[in-house]
Structures are given as structure tokens and as C-alpha cells.
Amino acid sequence: MTIIPGGLCSKIFLMEFEAVIGLEVHVQLKTRSKMFTRAAYRYGEPPNTLTNPTVLALPGTLPVMNAEAIRKSIKVGLMFGCKIAETCKWDRKNYFYPDSPKNYQISQYDQPLCLGGGVEIELPGPSRNIMGAHRVVQLTRIHLEEDVGKLTHFLNDSLVDYNRAGAPLIEIVSEPDMHSPDEVFAYLTTLRTCLIAAGISDCDMEKGQLRCDANISVRPHGETKLGTKVELKNLNSFSGVRNGTEFEIKRQIQCVQKGERIIQETRRWDAQLGLTQSMRSKEQAHDYRYFPDPDLMPVRTTPEQIEKLRAELPELPFDKQRRYLKDWELPYTITSVICPDRELSEYFEATVAVCGQPKAVANYIANDLLRELAAAAPSGESPLTVSQCKITAAALGGLVKIIEAGVISKQIAKDVFLEMFRTGDEAEAIVDRKGLRVQADTGELEKICAEIIAANPKPVEQYKAGKLTAINALKGQVMKQTKGQANPATVDEVLKKLLA
Amino acid sequence: MPEPLHSMTIAELGRRLAAKQASSEEVTRAFVERSRAVEPKVGAFLHRDEDDALAQARAADQRRAAGQTRGPLDGVPIGIKDVVAVKGQPLTCASKILKKFISPYDATVIERLRAAGAVLWGRLNMDEFAMGSSTENSAYQTTSNPWDLSRIPGGSSGGSAAAVAAGEAPAALGSDTGGSIRQPASLCGIVGLKPTYGVVSRYGLVAFASSLDQIGPMTRTTEDAALLLQSFAGHDPRDSTSLKQPVPDYTAALAAPPKPWTIGVPRDFFGAGLDAEVRASIESAIEFYKSRGCKIVDITLPHADLGLPVYYIIATAEASSNLARYDGVRYTHRSPETTDVLNMYFKSRAEGFGPEVKRRIILGTYVLSSGYYDAYYLRAQKVRTLIRRDFENAFQQVDAILTPTAPTAAFKRGEKSDDPLAMYLSDIYTISVNLAGLPGLSLPCGFTKSNLPIGLQLIGRPFAEADLLALGHLFETAHDYHSRRALL
To answer: Per CB distance under 8 Å, which residues of A are interface residues toward B?
Structure first.
């Protein structure tokens, strides 16, 4: 077994060597039907139920392009500043494998739908509450193709499920433009955030909606020529991508250190063993015999169509974050929670529109709302989303409004919020129902204060002797007596007056 | 003796049905009986379901009795080449690899034929996966030319042509990739029309070469070809290569008064391989058109002689990919003893495909291979463009182009089966029409001294099917070649 140097050792190596990483990310598009036929696509259905003669490649069947998939792919290209091809052309990639019903995959070879572009990423900052450096990872291309089926292997047999076969898939190919597992992680995170925000895909790696292969090489710092690359597969979780690339970089550096040659090959990340293993060398590489698919006509993309799609794009999360920081001076940590989540940021902005208090709303969402959403989810499952929350943006805005107006105390507001979360009622309705309104009648308050003063001679004595903090004990008693409904500032005023 | 039902055309049968002089069941039974009698000699059908055909016929009779008849094809049997999918029927493409395959779906043309009330009658023999010009490449049986049983019917739609010529069906569907409708039509003395690429849906037509394949009618007359094409032509959203072109009234075009056509004759393209008797028939056809006021113009198609090599690059490249799905995994033949997945592919395909299909898969795989693609496939596509331009230039000055359909009349069984190049040459006049995507019509224009049919090809501009049928009809009504019947 290979011993991989860790800790200090690896840091020294990493100082001498530079890793060069490019990613090939496959993303399943969220469309109702498959790429070239009307059969539906969903995750988790019984095997071979999402098929039809075309999916099964029965003799005589033909592909017909899913226009929604093209629109979604163009949106991805526009989001990342790619050049959109004037015509969308299809090629056949020929290879035999039982997960591919036609034994060719319809893909795009020499004319991808999107060319160039880049993805803005944020690297980890010096601490959690300080923004890290931003940079753009360059893209090579984005092309559209169809997914393959899923094989399950047994001792002597293999079973194939064609449900996934033909699902629309985009491949996002980056330039060899990343240099650390952190960059890779940040790149993948941004891709996911943007693709979810634009409604392109749900990007659930566990469901195979986002899949990632990494091309990794190392070279001495300062060297401009690329080293021999290894293609790393089976990176099927975000942590797998980080850990797998980290291991592979270290392995390659160690190889070079020992004077060994890096072999151009495909390796598989084994998350359980925590290492990469050779799958096949380049000599076994396929000749895919690409040629234009004669069953599909090239489709023209018009400037009007592209502009229409551009208008449908959401604000990118980093742009949103910059706006929140500049216009509303929100704390960085809160923006980094709210901005990547389109639903949450829309909820936030809708709430602000109601009450005009961005900071107060941001605090409510980042602290109270997200805590309760997490607590409300069944144990072990991911937090509920804002859309599953009973408090509407208007209702939360209403709550912030009455707090700011002094209608209820912040103390009382916490309980009102929980009640809203539980019932979905409006804040004011709860306040009225429970009689929680801050009492404006000082006559009543004066009477209570006088009673408390009479009943607590000791703090009264201390206060009068000059220990001013003793008033707090009296204040607490008054608040208790009024069940928190009194405005603490008013109580303070009345007590001071009576004790003067 | 009155003319038997099985000798009649669709139009004649339609008139009898409409006049209630015959029921569809009687008509269908006539073809079933004829088929029983002559099939041992002809061997046109791979599969006949008599009960199913008669049941369809009775349904047509019920419709007619209820006053819900669906038009000129309602209740008329139409034979189907075994390359077009019919739900519940075998779809073998005359290949062992699809021996057990029953189609679970209807091709678009079949849906439309059903909607027109046609009785779908049997599965007709062909060269395996439509690769061949004699129907000798069928994995199941040879089909004989009804005019001389020692001769081949042509191919690949040899079963369709022989069935119509032998009176086993009034008409049939064929498919044409390089001449597979027109050449057997010519050799069997019937009418065959390859429509413009994109006029007829390919959904449900088992692909040989996707950019060349078209389904078309094989009939006894141009009138029947018009009726049959009318029933299934037109845009299909399930085929991205089908065109959104309005479908004209083909039958009405036949009745229109003849126009002063200009007909181009590319004599330098006829070449040395053209049989003297065929040449003489073609020349007399040219004379006929001249006598009817048509202007005859000599034209050249400078790149037409490159059609054959270009075709065998493009068609085989597409075929090598199209036929990859027959792999032993799902519905095709799977070799009984295999050790692993690669071995399963090798053995299943080695056992399932015949020699000509293998030859073309190997050829197509080669021309698409890395390092050869530019020299072969890409180059062939460029020459294809030149061939298309030749036709475009010609159609600047002519309305139609007239050629022989095939260089010879029907040849003997086995005569060319060991010489693929000689076999390929029998499509020399038809192949470039597919490469250019144009419509081509073959109709009977004479007989050799030994009583073998000779065919005339008329090539038109894109979507000129109606013109070609009218021009063919002009010849047909002045001659009796189409009404002669093979003696069996």
C-alpha cells in the first residue's frame, strides 16, 4: 500500500509543485421529457418503466430534439458568459456498451452549443466571517448530450435499467485552470448554486444529477508545460471531489519525488479506502467514430431567442451578495448564507419590501428562521425550505414592523415568532389574541410600579443609597407582573420618577 | 373470362368495392388464394397472416356497410416490406438477428395506412437490412422474378415487386436507399416511386442509411402510386428529417392536361454497361415523349459517375452506426454460449448478420475511423454536394430527367452474387437520385425479346412527385406494358 505523506511533509511538497486540475461536470437538466423522445424522466422509478420504443432503440425509431433542453443549455451558457453557437448540431459518438441502447450516444462533437466563458468562484477567506478572494475559472465548452442507462453487476450477470437512458445531460468542461482541492470544491459549489438558482437542475449528486470527473496533473512551480494527466472518476459526492483530488495530487507529487513517471490513465476514487486505483490506461482508449447524426437536422439559435432567454436568467448569487453588502451593508456571514439560496434570498427581499428593515430581517432569517427550519425537519434530514415554512414573507415583514414600532418588545417577539412558525398566523393577530401589546397606559403601570416599590423595600433602599443598578431588580418584578407586555424603557422611566 | 380480382389495380378494386360488386373480404381472399397458389414458385412473402388480413377486410366491409368508408384504399390489401414496423407483426428485415422480433409499435406510414382503411397484408422478402439488389441477401429465402423464375426480382424490395407482379397483392410498400424501390420495380415490370427525401416519414422504417432511406409505393400503375403515396405522405413530428411541405393532390395531377415538358437525357452517363435492348426501349420512350410535344434536351451530370463510390461510403458509414443496436442485449439474437459482454457482442453479431451486411458494417466502420474520416466520409459528403449541384443545374433547363432504371433486365439467380461490384452496378442510375434527395419514378417501358420487363426512370425536382406521376401516366396510357401479367 502506498503511504501518503501528510501534514507538514505534504505542505513542503505542495510548495515545490503545482497541481493543475480541469473538471468535466455532467449535469442532468430538469425537463419533463427525455432529450430525444417524449418519455418522461424522473429519479427513483421502478426499473425500465420510463421507456418507449425510442428509449429502447427498437428498430425504426427516431430521435426528436427536446427544445426545452436546448433552452436550458443556452441559459447555462449565458449565465457563464459563453459564446452561444449559431446552430445546434448533433453528432453520434459510437461505442458498444450495454447501458447505451443504440450503442451510440447523440452528443455534440466539433460544434458545442456553448464555447468559452468562465465561472466566478470564492476561495475560503482567512476566517468564517471574512470574504475570501474571488477568481474566474475559465470554461472550455458546454455541450448537450443524452444520458445512458444504469448497469447493476452481479456475480455472473448484469442487469440494465434504461430509465435514465436518454435523459438530457450537459457536459461543462473547464480549462485546466484550478490548482487546489479548495478551488475545485469552490468551483463545483458555485456551479451547483447557479444551476439550481436558474432552475436548470436540482444538482443532487446522490441522485446522479451532477457528476464530476477531474483531469489532474502536477508540475514544478514556474513550469508552464502541463504534466501527464490522470483522469479521476467516481467522485460522487462533494467531499469525494475534494478528498479524491487531494489524494491524487499528493500521489502524483510523491511519484515525481521518487523519480517515477506518471502514467496517462483513468483512475477511480475509492471513498471507502480513501485512495485512487487504476481503471484503464490510454492504450485502451476508444475511437468513437464521431459523425453528424443524419436523423437530426441542425437547429438555428436566433439572437431574439437568446435575448429572451437572457432576460429569464436570475441574478447570479455573487452579484446579489455584492448588492446586499453595498446597498444594505449586511454582515458578510449573513449574505453568504442567504445569497446562494435563490428561494431564501427572494423571501428575504420580499420581507424587506414589506417592512424596509434589511438588517433586522436578515438577522431574523439567519438566526431564528433557519434554526426553526432545521429543527422542524425530521432528524437526519436536511432542513425544511422556505417554501415549506408557514410564515409568509409578508407576515415576517409584519412582525419586524411591529417590533420596530415598539408595539411589542423584542422579548415578546421571540415567542410571537415561534407561534407564527407553528400556526402561520399573522403577528398582529397573535399579539391581539394573547394581549401582548406593550401597555401605553402609564396610569396602570404607575400603580403596578408603586406596588412593587412597596413590596420590595430592600432594593429601594439600595437604590436610594446610590446603587443605581438595584433598579433592575424592581424592573424585573414589574415585567413579570405585566407578563412582559410593558415597554421596558417606560417601566424604567416610571420607576425612576416614583423613586426620585 | 372476366378479369380475376387479383389482377386488378387499387383503382379498379376501389371501384368494385364502392359499387358493392365485391366485398373487401372477397378481394382479400382473392389475394390470399393467389398467394397460396403461386408462393411456392415466387417466394415473395416472409410471413403471411391470412386470418389477420381477412379480419381487417371484414372490418372494412362493416365500415362500408355503416357508411363510414375511409376512401379509395379502404378494404384494399397492401403488402408491406419487412423493414416497416407493424404492431404485432414480425419485423425481421430478412435478417437472422431479428428472427424473433415482433414490433410493439406501428410506423407512421402504417398508422396512416390503417387510418385509410388499408388491409395490411403480410411481410415481404428483401435483401437483409435492405442491402442488396437481388433479394438474394435475405437470410430466409430467395424470391423469384415472376416473369422468369430462374431470375432474381431485383432488390432490395424484391419481395414487394414480385408480390405485385405475381398478383399476390395489388400494391406494396418498398423502401429505397439507392434504388431499392425503382430497380426491382423495373425488373418486375411494375411502377415504383421513391419520393423526395423528407416527404414520407421514416419513423418505423428500420434504418439502413438514414440520410438516403425513403418509403415509397410499388404498384401496377401510376394512378395507384398516386393513391398510395397520397395516403401516407406528409410531415410527421416523430421524424426530424420529414419536411413541413403541403401534400399536393397526386391523383388530380394525373388528370390534368399534359404540359409541354422539357426532358433532359444524360446520355454520356448511360455508359458502356447499358444493355442494348434496354437502350432501345429507352430511346423509343424518348421518341414517344418527343411525339407528344415534349422538348428533349441532352444534359450532362458531370459527377454522376462518382455516385456509386460516394454512396458506398456514406451509406455504409451510416449503416455501421445504425446497425450497432443489434447487439444481443435486448431484442436481437443472442448467441447461446457467451463468456462476457464483448464475447456476447462478437458472437451474436457474427451469427446474426449475413456476409453482405458484415461487409458494409466493416466498410462503414473503416471510413469513419480516426485518421480516415477526412479522406473518406468528409470527402464523400463534399462530392455528394457536387452531385446535388449537377442536378440543380440540370433542373435550371429541364423539368425532368429520363434514364433507364437499371442497366439490364432481370439477371439470373447467382449470376452476380459472388461479385459485389457487379451487383452494385445495377443501381448505377438510381443511386445519385438518393444522394441528391430527389424523387425518382420507375415505370414499365418495354420488354426484352425473352419477355423480361424493362423500366424507365424519371427524375424530378424536389417535391415534383405529382409531375413525375403525370409524365409517367402520359406514357402509361399510350402503352400496355403495365397491363401485361406474368404467366405463373
So the answer is: 53, 56-65, 92, 94, 96, 98, 101-104, 158, 160, 287, 289-291, 294-297
